[in-house]
């Protein structure tokens, strides 16, 4: 799918490693806090994005796919700010920049279907940081003539990220009757979205991504348990969850929406391989 000559992947974590494996051999380079072994002949070099100089930042490719989460500070992300400033000051500007944001920027939508025209109303600090990053990149892209594609990403699942540890420990989940609609994407589908976002013409400036399956997180946890041969997790009502769940977990349960991913298929040209998490 990718037709551009070279790609820089910022971040070599759960998604970044799969991006390197999916990109053509020797067509990409990744930057990460620590160097790692090449994946599909695509190397990872050590670049500390919290280092003000960023002297080790390599010459970028035709596209950058940025997977690094924002620093946990209020206001514009200093990590991202330094990165894009180094691109502009070091003659490293790409043609296109793909940024992983979050569907959390929409806030609570009362379970309604939400497309990209919806006004963001982030209710959590992490979502506010992502929206600030989106706005920073939009201004930077306009000033420097760089095409920008923002992917608004829901919960990512896949091998090693299925919540098996919590299920094994018997942690409770919200009872299905009290649960909100779910929004998820398999890591391999997210990789295909990122590759398409880096290459498709014309650029898609903003795109919700997801598997289109809005069954609840409780359904997902029970389905994973069944597939793994584990007991179904105990279910508790919302009022009990509010006393026992962490604040972070409760913040996810407080928001309800269903992502409209029509643009993902119609403009990015990506149909999820995992439209049903049980496939």
Structure description:
This protein is α/β, with parallel strands linked by helices and 279 residues long. The chain has nine helices and 14 strands. It has helices at 14-22, 78-89, 125-144, 164-168, 187-199, 217-228, 238-244, 247-253, 262-266, and strands at residues 7-10, 28-32, 36-39, 42-46, 63-66, 96-102, 113-114, 147-153, 155-157, 173-174, 184-186, 206-208, 235-236, 258-259. The strands form four sheets. It has an eight-stranded mixed β-sheet, with helices on both faces. A two-stranded parallel ribbon has the order 7-14. β5 (63-66), α2 and β6 form a beta-alpha-beta unit. α1 packs across α5 (187-199). The two termini are 23 Å apart. The model has no long low-confidence stretch (mean pLDDT 92).
How do the strands of the widest beta sheet line up side by side? Answer: 3-4-2-1-5-6-8-12
Overall mean pLDDT:
92
Q: What order do the helices and strands follow?
A: EHEEEEHEEHEEHEEHEHEHHEH
What structural class do you assign from the helix and strand content?
alpha/beta
Shape: globular
Helix-strand layout with pairing:
Blueprint: E1 7-10, H1 14-22, E2 28-32, E3 36-39, E4 42-46, E5 63-66, H2 78-89, E6 96-102, E7 113-114, H3 125-144, E8 147-153, E9 155-157, H4 164-168, E10 173-174, E11 184-186, H5 187-199, E12 206-208, H6 217-228, E13 235-236, H7 238-244, H8 247-253, E14 258-259, H9 262-266
Parallel strand pairs: 1-2, 1-5, 2-4, 5-6, 6-8, 7-14, 8-12, 9-11, 10-13
Antiparallel strand pairs: 3-4
């Amino acid at each position: 799918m990718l037709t551009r000559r070279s790609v820089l992947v910022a971040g070599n974590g759960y998604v970044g490693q799969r991006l390197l494996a999916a990109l053509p051999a020797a067509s990409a380079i990744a930057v990460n806090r620590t160097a790692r072994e090449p994946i599909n002949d695509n190397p990872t070099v050590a670049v500390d994005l919290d280092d003000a100089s960023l002297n080790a930042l390599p010459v970028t490719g035709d596209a950058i796919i940025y997977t690094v989460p924002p620093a946990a500070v209020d206001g514009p992300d200093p990590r991202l700010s330094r990165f894009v400033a180094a691109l502009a000051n070091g003659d490293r500007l790409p043609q296109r920049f793909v940024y992983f944001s979050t569907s959390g920027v929409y806030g609570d939508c009362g379970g309604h279907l939400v497309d990209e025209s919806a006004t963001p109303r982030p209710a959590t600090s992490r979502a506010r940081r992502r929206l600030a990053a989106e706005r920073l990149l939009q201004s930077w892209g306009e000033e420097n003539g760089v095409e920008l594609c923002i992917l608004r990403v829901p919960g990512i699942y896949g091998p090693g990220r299925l919540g098996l540890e919590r299920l094994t420990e018997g942690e409770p989940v919200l009872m299905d009757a009290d649960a909100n609609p779910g929004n998820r994407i398999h890591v391999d589908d997210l990789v295909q979205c990122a590759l398409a976002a880096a290459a498709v013409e014309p650029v898609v400036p903003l795109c919700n991504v997801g598997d289109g399956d809005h069954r609840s997180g409780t359904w997902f946890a029970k389905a994973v348990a069944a597939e793994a041969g584990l007991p179904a997790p105990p279910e508790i009502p919302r009022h009990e969850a509010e006393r026992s769940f962490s604040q972070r977990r409760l913040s996810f349960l407080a928001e309800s929406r269903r992502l409209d991913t029509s643009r993902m298929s119609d403009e990015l040209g990506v149909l999820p391989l995992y439209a049903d998490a049980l496939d």
